[in-house]
Design a protein that fits this description.
Layout (H helix, E strand, L loop, with lengths): L1 E2 L6 H4 L31 H11 L4 E6 L1 H12 L4 E7 L11 H15 L6 H12 L11 H11 L11 H5 L5 E5 L4 H14 L2 E4 L12 H17 L3
Parallel strand pairs: 1-2, 2-3, 3-4, 4-5
Helix pairs in contact: 2-3, 4-5
Length: 237
């Protein structure tokens, strides 16, 4: 189960993961408002986590990128019995590492950006948002329809750093956990450090694409495949 982040929907976020379909059944739902998924009044991790939890069915490996990583963390705490493993790629759960000065500054920058988001042109807002996360995606001056739609959703999205992640609950769960960072940001390094230590998670660094880790393709796919295969091997038969 692949859960995408903000602005960009499932198809574009996970297109480099298609080769994994040779080994795994891939489910990549569009979050509300993306693709053909009906929108919510406001994009909100608390409202979306139960939707993903329901899609897990009898059990699935759960993978989340950025905002989708926050959703995946909350979802895994809500239905741990349905999670075979959990992988998060630089989730925007900055609050868990707010004692770090770099993280505290990033939260304040994000809050100021969101306070001013209705004053900025969509392309300017998108550049500022991507700069704050370290995304390597190019931003055209004239946004195509799909990107303009993603920006409209961002305009009303609840900031991911407001999420309270139940670290203690997740630490008590028995499924394997993998935390992936992109090796580009002290902020996301700090967030991933907290997750690694608090959850007893495996850690990987996949560089080359900044915050847009799944776009690295083969290196990310190889690490994820190895983790999923090992997780399956450890499951009781």
């Amino acid at each position: 189960m692949l859960v995408h982040g903000s602005i960009v929907g499932a198809e574009r976020t996970w297109r480099a993961q298609r080769p994994l379909g040779e080994h795994w059944a891939l489910i990549a739902p569009n979050r509300p408002g993306y693709g053909d998924s009906p929108p919510l009044a406001r994009s909100d991790f608390e409202l979306e986590a139960p939707l993903i939890a329901e899609l897990l069915g009898d059990g699935a490996h759960l993978v989340g990128q950025s905002y989708g990583g926050v959703i995946a963390l909350l979802c895994a705490a809500q239905r741990p019995e349905a999670v075979r493993s959990l992988t998060v790629c630089e989730p925007g759960a900055l609050r868990i590492a707010r004692a770090n000065p770099d993280v505290a500054a990033a939260i304040e920058t994000g809050n100021e950006l969101f306070r001013r988001r209705h004053e900025l042109a969509p392309d300017a807002l998108l550049r500022a948002f991507r700069a704050n996360t370290g995304s390597t995606r190019a931003t055209p001056t004239r946004l195509p329809d799909w990107l303009a739609r993603g920006m409209a959703l961002l305009m009303s999205e609840r900031p991911s750093w407001e999420a309270d992640i139940p670290l203690a609950e997740l630490a008590r769960t028995g499924f394997p956990k993998l935390v992936v960072s992109g090796g580009h940001s002290a902020v996301f390094d700090a967030v991933c450090d907290v997750l690694e230590q608090s959850l007893g998670a495996e850690r990987a660094v996949i560089g080359g694409r900044g915050h847009t880790i799944p776009a690295a393709g083969a290196p990310f796919n190889a690490r994820l495949h190895a983790f999923l295969a090992a997780s399956e091997a450890r499951r009781p038969r």
